[in-house]
Design a protein that fits this description.
Length: 404
């Protein structure tokens, strides 16, 4: 395998993206990936450099992996929403810092800790609904609804709206990668609906304050200098809802799939002493956010190549997380490894994951509960399907069985 084989959209590389990345780290650590039309950064050291140097590696347009400009019909649909709505993940300072400051004020450790009993209660309630069936698609019945409902309660979104927010959010991500033009039209309509939904939510909070996270953000907006307007605030709950459930869903699915092939994982997840490290090690190995994107603001030397100004770059977290220069026996599952703290599954630098404590809390509550309640949990007879969004590793469906 060599870097010319790199195609994360191909079915075999959705299943196993790691061999081609290992070849890249050995032979061509920063290479131009023709399949995506961007530069892929594969070594831990270089990925860290990208993440820490936001002046050279800007996040503007950081979500978009496709180089193709959107067709005019799609742009026209998007114009009906809020094309200038800032998403925190796509911002550079100073706007990034203003918006991140607002989340930090509202998304406090106390607010996260208060969610802990709710996470367990929601997880139990979901399991009650299918426990007697003996089989299920665990993504549909559990891995999607759990983080969505937790975020719904956190952000202040009614439960009946979660289904469409989930659909619109997935469409938003899908619009960021190559798609047939016909499909882009529908995806763009979802983006507009998503943006309008959150602007409307923020405007209602401006008139009628609430205790939820959006209410807290609205209340704190005056402390940010200069204050943020409704559209600027609305990007935040939108980011949290999307970034906060797609990743946790993927992490749950990938963990289960891994434990079906390795009994040690089950034992580690069921023991409170080993649970946190096991979760961390699986995040390192699976990297639910495989990599995200940056654009160079000036010429830069990286991994032996010179990137021109304006180059699109993918900082490949999943590849960095298996770099043998940092992790010993990097492909092996070993929650006791001394180098575990170096993993980049939550990123690094100014865009470090805001939801990392919540994501960890959800996984630590949900996974042992699932294993205790569904005795003998194992892979189902039907084949699992991989996730379509290539930069999010996980499953679209994961059929499972247990002793009902
Ligand atoms: C296992 C779960 C999760 C993983 C693996 C994950 C991964 C990541 C990564 C790698 C980044 C850095 C992006 C970059 O550098 O461009 C990030 C940022 C972010 N994450 Fe997470 N995340 C998880 C859970 C969550 C949750 C639960 C939330 C919300 C409640 C969340 C919200 C965010 C937000 C808003 C950002 C952008 C921060 C910024 O740009 O300043 N994430 N996440």
């Amino acid at each position: 395998m060599s870097t010319t084989d790199f195609d994360p959209l191909a079915p075999d590389q959705r299943e196993n993206p790691f061999d081609v990345l290992a070849a890249a780290r050995r032979e061509q650590p920063v290479f131009f990936g023709e399949a995506l039309g961007l530069w892929v950064v594969t070594r831990h050291e270089d990925v860290l450099r990208v993440l820490k140097d936001h002046r050279t590696f800007s996040s503007a347009g950081a979500l978009k992996s496709s180089l193709e400009p959107l067709p005019p019909e799609v742009v026209e649909i998007l114009a009906g929403g809020y094309p200038k709505m800032p998403y925190i993940i796509e911002l550079d300072p100073p706007l990034h810092d203003r918006i991140r400051g607002l989340v930090t004020k509202a998304f406090t450790p106390r607010r996260i800790a208060a969610l802990e009993p709710r996470i367990a209660a929601i997880a139990s309630e979901l399991i009650d609904r299918f426990e007697r069936d003996g089989r299920a698609d665990v993504i549909e019945r559990f891995a999607w609804p759990l983080p969505l409902r937790v975020l719904g309660e956190l952000v202040g979104v009614p439960e009946q709206d979660l289904g469409r927010l989930h659909r619109w959010g997935t469409d938003w991500l899908l619009l960021q990668q190559q798609q047939p033009p016909d499909r882009q039209l529908g995806l763009a309509r979802s983006v507009v609906a998503l943006q309008r939904y959150f602007v409307d939510l923020v405007e209602r909070r401006l008139e009628d304050p609430t205790d939820d996270l959006v209410g807290a953000m609205v209340a704190a907006r005056a402390e940010i200098d200069p204050p943020l307007d409704a559209v600027e605030i609305a990007g935040l709950p939108l980011d949290l809802m999307v970034a906060g459930h797609v990743t946790v869903t993927r992490a749950i699915g990938s963990t289960l799939s891994r434990l079906f092939g390795d009994p040690r994982v089950r034992d580690h997840l069921l023991d409170p002493k080993t649970l946190p490290a096991a979760i961390e090690e699986i995040l390192r190995l699976e990297s639910p956010a495989q990599g995200l994107f940056r654009v160079t603001t000036r010429e830069a030397r990286l991994g032996g190549v010179t990137l021109p100004a304006g180059a699109r770059v993918m900082a490949h977290f999943a590849s960095a997380n298996r770099d043998g220069c940092v992790f010993s026996a990097a492909d092996d599952y070993d929650p006791l490894r001394a180098d575990l703290g170096n993993h980049l599954a939550f990123g690094k630098g100014i865009h470090f994951c805001i939801g990392a404590p919540l994501g960890r809390l959800e996984l630590a509550a949900a996974l042992p509960l699932l294993l205790r309640r569904l005795r003998g949990l194992r892979a189902g007879a039907e084949p699992a399907e991989r996730e379509e969004v290539f930069f999010a590793r996980g499953f679209r469906t994961l059929p499972v069985e247990w002793d009902a």
